[in-house]
């Protein structure tokens, strides 16, 4: 898989595009004016692996809250602005790292110019965001509800910025339709080299939201598209970050923490594989080791099937095996399997 070579844009001390790793972002669901709650959530998200955070700025009170939030945030902060250019100017003055703003929606070229000039002076990028559900009326009439309409809408906003020689632009084209999202991003990538913020909007909640997000973002990544991403779930934002990390890890694009692989159950399984897998995951939660850990249900074929794992266990009837890189290093009773695995992993921390 060859990743698209996008223009590099700086967001705070983070680079998006170019040869930079794909970054993970989320958005706070607190009221921005509640400074304490917002900072607390940002820190929780950062601990979970979030690298960029977006906060809603719907009014001047939210602008007034930004300086303290920005000061205490461990990751770059983007202000989400709609319609009112004065909020954008206030956010820039407050020290924001980036804007999420569509130039065509803030009323007139003079207002766009003021925001662009302030952004240039502050050295911050602007993300243009197009959702299929909120297309420009004239463009929707011309192209219908389509990927072409999404790209035309993005182009309209980009033209405002390029006329002012502003090119520190990040673009997102999102739909609740996976295929429309994929087509729109492919069409855009043929026309522009700006970095892409990817995601499937309104993906839903729970397992269905996870699966839809993974399918959509997986399709985009497999075509080399994406420089930063957000999983959009109706859920705790921490789950968005955790899902994003797992998707990138599954593509070999993120080396962060422990990856657990486990086999499906079958008639040869003689242990409670589901419980064992959950126990291993719980015991290793929070570890910063970069390891692949296998949990296999068959002592006969397990070590061979998981030979690429750094370490693993395979259960049998009342007994289990500990193995490294497919080589068996220890045989223990079933009730000692989990503890022995953790002991061996702790040894690896010192190696």
Automatic annotation (TrEMBL):
Key words, A-Z: 4Fe-4S, Iron, Iron-sulfur, Isoprene biosynthesis, Metal-binding, Oxidoreductase
GO molecular function: 4 iron, 4 sulfur cluster binding; 4-hydroxy-3-methylbut-2-en-1-yl diphosphate synthase activity (ferredoxin); 4-hydroxy-3-methylbut-2-enyl-diphosphate synthase activity (flavodoxin); iron ion binding
Binding site for [4Fe-4S] cluster: 263, 266, 298, 305
Record bears the keyword Metal-binding: yes
Gene3D superfamilies, per the entry: Dihydropteroate synthase-like, Sulfite Reductase Hemoprotein, domain 1
Cofactor(s) listed in the protein's UniProt record: [4Fe-4S] cluster
Top-rank taxon: Bacteria
Keyword Coiled coil: no
Limits of the IspG C-terminal domain: 259-347
Pathway participation: Isoprenoid biosynthesis; isopentenyl diphosphate biosynthesis via DXP pathway; isopentenyl diphosphate from 1-deoxy-D-xylulose 5-phosphate: step 5/6
Cofactor-binding details, from the entry: Binds 1 [4Fe-4S] cluster.
A Gene Ontology biological process term: isopentenyl diphosphate biosynthetic process, methylerythritol 4-phosphate pathway
Protein name, entry field: 4-hydroxy-3-methylbut-2-en-1-yl diphosphate synthase (flavodoxin)
Organism: Halonatronomonas betaini
Name of the coding gene: ispG
């Amino acid at each position: 898989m060859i990743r698209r070579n996008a223009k590099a844009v700086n967001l705070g001390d983070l680079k998006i595009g170019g040869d930079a790793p794909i970054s993970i972002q989320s958005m706070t669901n607190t009221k921005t004016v509640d400074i304490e709650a917002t900072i607390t959530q940002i820190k929780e998200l950062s601990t979970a692996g979030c690298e960029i955070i977006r906060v809603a700025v719907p009014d001047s009170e939210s602008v007034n809250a930004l300086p303290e939030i920005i000061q205490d945030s461990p990751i770059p902060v983007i202000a989400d602005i709609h319609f009112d250019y004065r909020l954008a100017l206030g956010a820039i003055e407050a020290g924001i790292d980036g804007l999420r703003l569509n130039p065509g929606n803030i009323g007139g070229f003079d207002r766009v110019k003021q925001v662009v000039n302030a952004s240039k002076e502050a050295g911050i990028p602007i993300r243009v965001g197009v959702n299929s559900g909120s297309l420009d009326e004239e463009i929707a009439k011309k192209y219908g509800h389509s990927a072409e309409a999404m790209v035309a809408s993005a182009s309209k906003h980009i033209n405002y910025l390029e006329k002012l020689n502003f090119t520190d632009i990040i673009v997102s084209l999102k739909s609740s339709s996976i295929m429309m999202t994929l087509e729109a991003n492919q069409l855009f990538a043929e026309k522009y080299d700006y970095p892409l913020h990817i995601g499937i909007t309104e993906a839903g909640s729970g397992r269905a939201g996870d699966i839809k997000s993974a399918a959509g973002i997986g399709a985009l990544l497999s075509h080399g598209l994406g420089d930063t991403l957000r999983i959009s779930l109706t859920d705790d934002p921490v789950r968005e970050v955790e899902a994003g990390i797992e998707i990138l890890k599954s593509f070999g694009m993120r080396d962060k923490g422990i990856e657990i692989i486990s086999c499906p159950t079958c008639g040869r399984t003689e242990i409670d594989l589901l419980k064992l897998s959950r126990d291993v995951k719980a015991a290793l939660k929070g570890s910063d080791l970069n390891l692949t850990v296998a949990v296999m249900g068959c002592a006969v074929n397990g070590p061979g099937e998981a030979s690429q794992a750094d370490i693993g266990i395979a259960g049998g009837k009342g007994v289990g095996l500990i193995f490294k890189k497919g080589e068996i290093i220890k045989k223990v009773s079933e009730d000692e399997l989990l503890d022995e695995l953790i002991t061996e992993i702790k040894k690896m921390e010192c190696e």
